[in-house]
Design a protein that fits this description.
Radius of gyration: 27 Å
Strand content: under 5%
Helix content: over 70%
CATH superfamily: MetI-like
Largest sheet: none
CATH architecture: Orthogonal Bundle
Number of helices: 14
Number of domains: 1
CATH class: Mainly Alpha
Order of helices and strands: HHHHHHHHHHHHHH
């Protein structure tokens, strides 16, 4: 009897036709990302004979050109991120809480900077603040000066100003979204109770903006660490960052192993900052 039941009840095999769809994107990702990354890591850690070359790695890490590039990269990225946070916060407060005609148009106009190539901003800065730019030309003609009086563009601060201009919208957009959720009744109640605007901003508005500031600041820090076009186009004397150093060692000097060692360090730094951004965005709900 039990045999009859077993024969009469065939086992049905459940098929999952969608489980193999992971293969094409995984293969494409391995081909376009992981394989080139593995080649860079191999070139960085192994010599031509396939033996680990720790001496070359330590030489690069202790070299003056690498340490200077690392210091420049960290300094510029921190200064630019701080500038983006300050400018973005001020602009967001004005656009969100100071009513004036055309505020929406101004916000959309600032958003267009996200779509523009970074070199366009540096080109505009060159026309405005360069040695032969409009500002220097006007000052030299007005005061009969023999040399251009404004020369900050070709320095670290010129790079910082350009990056602040380019990446401020990445702070502005999440701030405007956060400010749209602020209860206007709390602001009105605080104003009726005699609170001054600075106190309202500090105690009512800023607590709602902290998640957006942290997430946007982490993203700006990641983008400025990897910025290449602005630094290259401005051509600031002595301002060499890690991406620019990689370009110089690989393309101009053909020192591929040195370039790969610096690239691995730059990748590790970028992944760390990306993890910080994802943690801040997920933890704080920005």
């Amino acid at each position: 009897m039990s045999d009859a039941v077993a024969i009469g009840s065939p086992v049905t095999i459940r098929r999952e036709p969608g489980k193999f769809w992971i293969v094409p994107p995984a293969a494409l990702l391995a081909l376009l990302f992981f394989y080139p990354l593995a080649l860079i890591a191999r070139q960085a850690f192994l010599d031509d004979s396939g033996v680990a070359n720790a001496a070359e790695i330590f030489r690069v890490l202790h070299s003056r050109f690498f340490l200077n590039a690392l210091v420049n990269t960290v300094t510029i990225s921190i200064a630019a991120t701080a500038g983006c946070l300050i400018v973005g916060l001020v602009l967001a407060l004005i656009l969100a809480f100071v009513p004036f005609p055309g505020s929406g148009f101004i916000a959309r106009l600032i958003d267009t900077f996200i779509a523009l190539p970074t070199f366009l901003v540096t080109l505009a800065f060159t026309f405005l603040y360069g040695s032969a730019g409009m500002l220097n030309t006007g000052l030299m003609e007005a005061f009969s000066l023999p040399l251009p009086p404004v020369d900050f563009l070709y320095s670290t601060w010129g790079v910082v100003l350009a990056e602040v201009t380019v990446y401020t919208p990445f702070i502005l957009r999440p701030l405007l979204a956060a400010f749209s959720l602020v209860d206007r009744g709390q602001i009105e109640a605080a104003s009726v109770l005699g609170a001054r605007p600075f106190r309202i901003v500090r105690q009512v508005i800023l607590p709602a903006a902290i998640p957006a500031l942290i997430a946007g600041g982490s993203l700006c820090l990641l983008l400025t660490v990897n910025e290449f076009g602005i630094v290259l186009f401005i051509g600031a004397k002595g301002v060499i960052t890690l991406p620019l150093l990689i370009y110089g060692k690989a393309i101009q000097e053909s020192a591929y192993q040195v370039a790969c060692i610096i690239a691995v360090i730059n990748i590790a730094l970028s992944l760390g900052l990306f993890g910080l951004y994802r943690f801040a965005a997920g933890r704080l709900g920005a």
